[in-house]
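Illustration 12: RINT1-like protein MAG2L isoform X2.
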Amino acid sequence: MLERGMWSWGNCHCWRRRLVESKLFVYMLLEALVGDLEDAAFAVVSQTPKTNTSLSLRRASNLNDIMWKQEKLLLAIKIMKDIEHVLVRVSKSRPRWANLVKAVDSRVEKTLAILRPQALNDHRALLAALGWPPPLLTSDIEGDRSSEMLNPLFLMHGEKKEMYSQNFLALCALQHLQAQREARHYMDFTKQSCYRDDLWAIDELVHPVSLKMEYHFSKWSDQPKFVFALVYKVTKDFMDGVDSVLQPLIDQARLVGLSAKEAWVTAMVKILLAYLERRVFPVLVSTYHNSDENLEVSSSWLDLLDLIITFDKRMQVLSSSGIKLTGPFLELEGFSRSLSILSVFNEHSDWLQIWAEIELKIANDNLEPELEDERSWLCRIGKQSEFGYKEEVDIFLLSTREDYKAPPIADSVIKVALAMIERGQTLPSKRMRSQFARSSATIFLNNFFVILLQRCRDLELMTAAIQDEALLRVACTVNASRYCESVIREWDEEVTFLEMTGDGNNNQQHPRLFFADEIGYLIKLETDCLEEIMSVLLLEFDAQCWDYIRNIDQWEKELSEPKVPVMDEYNLGISPGFVQALDMLRDHIEKLKLYLNSKDFLDLWRSIAEGLDYFVFSSIPWSDVKFSRSGVYQFKADMRALFHVFRPLCVRPEAFFPLISNSLKLLTITPKDVDYFLRVLVTDERRKKEWLLQQELHHLTINQAESILRNRKFGE
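Figure caption equivalent — predicted structure in token form:
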């Protein structure tokens, strides 16, 4: 039978082997250890004075009893460490002995339930004997003056300092042991405690300070700036003492990764956090719900949030001064979460929603006058001389609002949205930042995009002639949309937004953009507006050249005077019925060049050219018209004039009219080639296709080519 006090883990190496061999031996070993633990705990509790603890400590003539209690507490902690060591080995090697482990844990937990409150009470009594907490000089806060508070930590000397140090180390050891036990319960034997909760010894420093500050908080309920100022002042004034006295003790306790400064700042922030959560925010929330969009209520919210954001930044500076986090602490988002008062929204998402709604309402109210001012919607229009060909490499070098020719209102919207997003970046978690951005800035942007769409739809462009004012308005809408799209695309590439989209539904190889829906909406808006411009322009072109296209006689008749030399397209004038349509086309393209940003204009004029190519080709009744030689020359001259409208925009405009270009080539090939195609290849479709490809006629079908060639009246 093992006797209490006779066992030592380090001196009995053979017992380590026997540990896994005999359940009875393990039971006896643990029984002895638990008995020693209970004796040590009883000794600690039995020595507690029955009178006022603080008073007795101050009046004690010697500290032998106190030192003896600390020795017993350290002995109890050492025994618990030995018990924990045995339980870890048993849990790993003998999982079937779970009932034994539970029984021992139950007895150890009962002992801990006695030891921890007693250790905390002894620590509080010791702090009171040292004169903690000092008086709070709030008059200097109200008078906006600065003064140093006397720090009792600096005044400790001799036996008192030694006693406090030992007590601090014992409390840290007890907390560390409890963290190890929790890690075992979660079956994580390799986990090292990161102390993401508060350090007990620091909490005991802060608790009496918070009791004193609560009194002053109640006096300043209408002046929260004094509340924030007091917490900051107390935190800063005691910072040096905490760092110089407690940090060496934390290092001595081997609490890796712990900073006395950060633990102190965290505990002080939680005082203010608890006060705001309990007393301030509920009042603001109730007032907000009971008021009808009261400006004063919104101002109160924003004033408080301004104080919180400023306070958080100042406290972050205090906590990180001289601290360089390494290893896993850099990757822990929650490691510094308690350093932010804004973490109050983590448990109250409805409060965060109220904040976002207030920010959104104020942003909308501030933007409304600018939305109603038509001058805010005016684009920057260049000079008429700007119409001309530019290298495409310059077309896509767009960055500023001026480059995009966007109206000033677009820049205002972007700045307001960005301000809301940056304000939300002060929130301590990705989830809260994402919720705030989607509930404020995203809704704000979407509202503006709907206004852009409405302005485009209200124009009534579908008329016989396009008005310049309407054309300018649509162009400005497109420019504003394109500018907003480019800006939010840049935002989506930033780490800030990539982090906010990092949820479980995201494909890591193809992550969803934060503004994916907004970008898609803008792309559709731009496409619809440009298509509307193109459709109206083509309809007007059709109306003005209708008679020209339907006048078959102009292409069938030969010259009436045979003695006149054969004319070609270079010395022929443009058909009178085609001139007005070309003038209209050139005028609108020039204006679009001035109104639209270069990228959208590039897409638009190419689409217009493609539409004109199809319109002209499909409008000519190729199977009915019999082209004469002079008719071909006239048609070619008219089409060269059409190409010339687009010559300022590119080097070879005919390349954007493939159907017309192929038709002209067929109308001017030699009679020999015509005969070869129509007679020799009459039944060989494959060879006809090859012949068209050899002639570089890639855009016409065999039937279309035959229809054109069969209706030539010359060269037969």
